[in-house]
Amino acid sequence: MQNRFFLLTIIFLFALSTFTFSQLGQEAGQPYINVSVGSTSNYSYLIFNSGSNSIYYQVVLPTLNNIPNSITPTVLVTPMNGTLAPDSQQVINIKVSIPSNDAPYLKWQGILQIIETSSIQNSTSGMGIVIREGIAKILTIESLPPKPVPIVIPFSGQPQLPVYQNISIIIAISIITIIIVIAMVISIMYIKRKETKLKAMKGKRKVTATNLKRIITKKKQIKKVAGKKRVAKKYSKKKSKRQR
Amino acid sequence: MKENKLKKFNILITLSLIAALTLFILAIKINYSSSNNTVTASVNVGNVIYLSVSPNSINFGNLGSSSSYYTNVLVTDTDNGGNIAANILVEGTNWAWGSNIILVGNTLWSSSSQSSYSGTALANTFTITNIIVPQPTLSNPSTNNIIYFGVYIPGGTPPGNYMQTITFEDENVTYGTYNTVSSSYQVTAYANVIGTCYISLSTNNINFNSIYASANVPTNVLVIDSDNGGNAAASLLISGGNWIYSTNSLLQFGVTNTLWNPSSLTTYSGNTLTSNLINTGITIPAPTPSNPSSSNNIYFGLGVPGGTPAGSYTQTIVIDNTC
């Protein structure tokens, strides 16, 4: 009876192990992280558990190659360990910092591992190997020149645009200001000229429609009189010539 | 004089005719009123269902091959101004990206939000969900109900931006009425399938049993590295630790006594295992929709150095897939 019970248990456990499983996976792509010296960059990717059992995992940080006369970047990974629930995914974040006194265009490489740490029983009483499964990323880090230093306006609390961009804006504003000033001067001169003309015309009679008619009529009369006078003058000249 | 008289006579006749006509109309009206003083109006209000779904697009984000999104993405089905209850019907198309497809049945729907990938499979013909949009009333002319969706990306699905169209219909069986007015009745679903690789070893234990000092085991002990459901090729990396005596961790012999090889060897030969993680050059091919599981082999052998004290020793090896 006990033997049968034991056998049934073994069969049940075997069946259970067959139908329940866990499988660790990750998003494809090897990280290539550019970091300006004196700053930090982030890179994220997904890891998966496509099975029906939870996965306990541990992160093993990369050992980066050593470059003479440089400080190896700092690599931080979050989370460093955890449990992946069945049929779930988790974001792994890599944060890389390069000190400011490192040179640009240096490259470091190392392997970041995420290893399953579920309990594995060594099934042998003799020589045995326990094999742990894992997923790995070949991490490449390249240093870049430092980022431009932003100008901070006092009391604003906010960093402004970098120096060279600021100068361009100042030049542009100066040019626009000069153009506006010139335009204002020209317009003022024009207005003054107009005023001078108006002042000159101020003494003269204001020309209205009625006045204009009167003026024209007057002018015609003057012309008539002038014409008559001319004729009279001409006539008198001719007469005086004849008389001679 | 005569004309004036004629004019007056005409005016008199006209006035008389007007008076007569007015009296006539009054007479008719009084007669009608005395026989009927109510007006009955009637109108036949028909059964109607208005259908509007929101949002018109849902995005499952980045999903790995052989992974799922829980059935908790909601879509609201609203009846604005109808007057009968309605049952929600849904149907869908296959997911598609270029010539690659994911079958429609990988999308599930549910009447409640789930904390797992579970529910009823969407089909390419209308399915009655038995999710009821309540009857709108005069006091509550707008009613709605919610349906939830989830999706599974089958193993081997190539990476890409996949799209599916889900179509809604509301029906009242009693009245034989379908939604007569649809302001929006389709939802476009998006899922970005990313490159993915998995690792699954055929065994996590190798048992060499008993080996004498100075003896060895040929490099023919097989471990299969499989990718069940990924969609990207992976490379096999390996590293190991020293062999450690079971009851005294200070008693060890070197990792390099273990050899590995991509193929089975009849002798104790091959590549030396080290404590540094190295690329074996063994590739696990990318699974495909028609072949969603791929694998490759790695073989191990062991040589026990002479003079090794008798007892049980264990070594830990790490095998990583990288993609």
Q: How many DSSP helices of chain A? A: 3
Any idea what the radius of gyration of chain B is?
42 Å
Shape of chain A: rod-shaped
- Which oligomerization state do the chains in this entry correspond to? heterodimer
Characterization of this structure:
The complex is a heterodimer of chains A (244) and B (323). Chain A is of the alpha+beta class. Helix content of chain A is 38%, strand content 32%. Chain A is built from 3 helices and 11 strands; from the N terminus they run αβββββββββββαα. In chain A, the strands form 3 sheets. In chain A, strands 2-9-8-4-6 form a 5-stranded mixed beta sheet, with no helix packed on it. Chain A has a 4-stranded antiparallel beta sheet with strand order 1-3-7-5, with no helix packed on it. Chain A has a two-stranded antiparallel ribbon with strand order 10-11. In chain A, a hairpin with a 6-residue loop joins strand 10 and strand 11 (159-162). The radius of gyration of chain A is 49 Å and the shape is rod-shaped. Chain B has 323 residues and is mostly beta strands. In chain B, 11% of the residues lie in helices and 50% in strands. Chain B has 1 helix and 25 strands. Chain B has one helix at residues 2-35; strands at 50-54, 57-64, 67-80, 86-92, 95-97, 100-102, 107-110, 120-121, 127-133, 142-153, 160-172, 177-178, 181-184, 186-194, 196-201, 205-209, 216-228, 234-240, 243-245, 252-253, 258-261, 271-272, 278-284, 293-303, 313-322. In chain B, the strands form 5 sheets. Chain B has a 6-stranded mixed beta sheet with strand order 8-7-10-3-1-13, with no helix packed on it. In chain B, a hairpin with a 6-residue loop joins strand 19 and strand 20 (252-253). Classes of the chains: A alpha+beta (244), B mainly beta (323). The A-B interface holds A 21, 23-30, 46, 48, 50, 87, 89, 111, 113, 115, 120-138 and B 62, 64, 66-68, 116-117, 155, 159, 194-201, 203-211, 223, 227-230, 232, 237, 243, 258, 277, 300, 302, 304, 312-323. Strand 1 of chain A pairs antiparallel with strand 15 of chain B, so a sheet runs across the interface.
